[in-house]
Amino acid sequence: MSTRSAGSGTGAHEALISGIAQRHAARPGGLLPALHAIQDELGYVPPEAVPTVAEVFNISRAEVHGVISFYHLFRTTAPGRRTLYLCRAEACQAMGARALESHTKERLGIDFHETTADGRISLEPIYCLGNCACSPAVMIDDFVHGRVTPQRLDALLEEG
Amino acid sequence: MTVEAHRVFVPRDTTARSMGADDVAAAIVAEAAGRGESVTVVRNGSRGLYWLEPMIEVEAGGARHAYGPVQSADVAALFDAGFLAGGEHGLGLGPTEEIPWLAKQSRLTFARVGITDPLSLDDYRAQGGYQGLARAVDLSRDEIIGIVTESGLRGRGGAAFPTGIKWRTVLNAEGAQKYVTCNADEGDSGTYADRMVMESDPFVLIEGMTIAGLAVGATIGYIYLRAEYPLAIRIMNEAIGIAEAAGLLGENVMGSGRAFHVEVREAAGAYICGEETSMLESLEGKRGVIRYRPPLPAIKGLFGAPTIVNNVITLASVPIILAEGAEYYRDYGTGRSRGTLTVQLAGNVRRGGLVEIGFGRTLRELLEDFGGGTATGRPIRAVQAGGPLGAYIHPSQFDTPLDYEAFDEIGGMIGHGGLVVFDDTVDMGEQARFAMEFCAIESCGKCTPCRIGAVRGVEVIDRILSGDDESGNLLLLRDLCDTMVAGSLCALGGMAPFPVISVLDHFPEDLRAR
Predict the structure, then answer these.
(1) CA–CA dist B308, B163 (Å, integer)
(2) How far is A155 from chain B (nearest CA, A)?
(3) What is the distance in angstroms between the Cα of A33 and the nearest Cα belonging to chain B?
(4) Lowest-confidence segment of B39-48, B155-164, B468-477 by average pLDDT
């Protein structure tokens, strides 16, 4: 779940993607680990990864695309500098997650799956961070915060 | 003369950190340096008294004393109060083991959780770790499975299938290669017991998987671990490396001449992959679309080979069963629900956290004696048990004992043991709608009742709430729920209607035109 941002540009990542794919192709069930490794490096799985990975794994492009699009946490566009994952699940709902969600969207001026115009923050829904006794919870990059009020969220967003 | 450093325990578990434990640890180190005190900060796991996190402990007079919830701003005052020697302070909780909330529990699977440094193999061994495996290497496969069967252990992931029977099926299945897979895709809201084990006592899961491997002749184990748990992934991977270096994993496990390897595979945020066949597809590197059953995974599972699929808590319960014997474990519990249940109190609850107790206590005891009612101080209106597919339980049902069969009788389920508490401000119509919305987001798309039904469910509830043919649409919603329950291929579509039906039955006043 890295959020390292990277410059785009078709072909720029070809060698890197191909290298990662080759490292994982021989592992049983290696496609998910390969996609994770690509996302860890680039912050997302760019569209040009699909034909490269398909070729190395000797499977169809449709299969690679199918796997990428099935899983919520693979993204196909570059994320903002930080990613805010907001838990929408029941234990957080019970402690005000719905109000936190509307506050966040209003404050950032974006909806889920979007990135602020200045590229600072991407907002993603998430269904449970396992922090359910100290809800509502959010995760910023890979750090979980508990009992997040709208005020506390504002402070967290100011921090970095 | 050297003075022995005071040991201060500051949990490194996700929830403790989410409440500021890292800052507290840093503040203690800085304050100690400033005062010239010799302090060693141990980053232990969490005891699971989550409403008190960050809860720190000190060793004094032969016992551990707790303070919490501590913020970094409290640290100087704690030093002033002499907390290193167990001194009195407003945040003092007394000797940890005597805190009633903890003392009333039966911590078997969680015996070491919160006590030890999660990555210290010495700690793990000093607290009884690896005694189960030590016994298992001297037993035949048949004997290991016999003990697990006699213990009465049933799958703690939710389905409650007898573990020993599953293992015997794998043992008896033909296959040159067999696998042990651990389902650590703990996606149910209100549950965190798997995360706690992996973050706070990772070796117990490795030991349990190793015993499972010896029992069925599997040499490879995979932990399918959710991406939403980055800290658990890191700790499990480190623990696997430590176990390998110590000869507890690898080609010659504990000198037995038998091999067992464990690898963590990171999931990617699909709730459906907690369904066992979907998890196997995902482990194979595919879309997590569920499989038809039969064949059972025990016969034809990962890569077509006989495969154990067990939840984290199930596997983590195995070492103590082997170490202490089947009867020791079976003596806890009631009826056909033997041993202990790890209840996770979550949501709007005053004292949320991990409660491990024998089966048979009532829901009310959990919510009131342990939970202390709601965090907001308002009355409890509903409790969702067993995750997003579990029924909303009405206060009139709170005397139901925690027992798989008793919950079944009231149309509920214990599932993975999560209890999500809601106060009387909850809008149960919204909760019913969310159950369908969640199913629509997470459906794998294989079967129509789930894929289409969940979308239609949201639409029908929206029509009811907006006053569009309320009575006709209420009837339609019941009918749709019946179709999904009866016609879906797996538990997602088959159980997503349960919370909706429970709202229709017990909170009908909220599912009305407004």
Answers:
(1) 9
(2) 14
(3) 7
(4) B155-164
Nearest CA in chain A to B273: A71
Q: Read off the pLDDT of residues A52-95 as tens digits, 9 standing for 90 and up.
A: 999 999 999 999 999 999 999 999 999 999 999 999 999 999 99
CA distance A117 to chain B (A): 26
What is the Cα–Cα distance from B408 to A141, expressed in whole angstroms? 40
CA-based nearest distance B288→chain A, Å? 7
Residues B98 and B144 in one domain: no
Task: Give me the pLDDT at residue A11, please.
Answer: 64
In this structure, what token pair is assigned to residue B382?
Answer: 């509903």
CB contact under 8 A, B17 and A144: yes
Give me the mean pLDDT over the A31-47 stretch: 97
B113 CB-near residues (< 8 Å, 6+ apart): B45, B46, B47, B48, B107, B196, B197, B200, B201, B354
Cross-chain Cβ contact B19/A139 below 8 Å: no
What's the CA gap between B78 and B56, in Å, rounded? Answer: 11
Can you give the CATH number for the domain in which B492 is found? Answer: 1.20.1440.230
Last residue of a domain, which of B308, B330, B352? B330
- Chain segment B93-142, per-residue pLDDT in tens: 999 999 999 999 999 999 999 999 999 999 999 999 999 999 999 999 99
Identify whether residues A92 and A65 lie together within a single domain: no
Using CA atoms, how far apart are residues B483 and B183, in angstroms rounded to an integer? 29
CB A159 within 8 A of CB A143: no
Question: pLDDT class for A1, splitting at 50, 70, 90?
Answer: very low
Q: With contacts defined as CB-CB under 8 Å, which chain B residues touch A74?
A: 268
Q: Does B188 touch chain A (CB under 8 A)?
A: yes
A39: closest chain B residue by CA: B268
ipTM value of the model?
A: 0.96
Cβ neighbours of A93 in B, within 8 Å: 347, 431, 434
CATH number at residue A122: 3.40.30.10
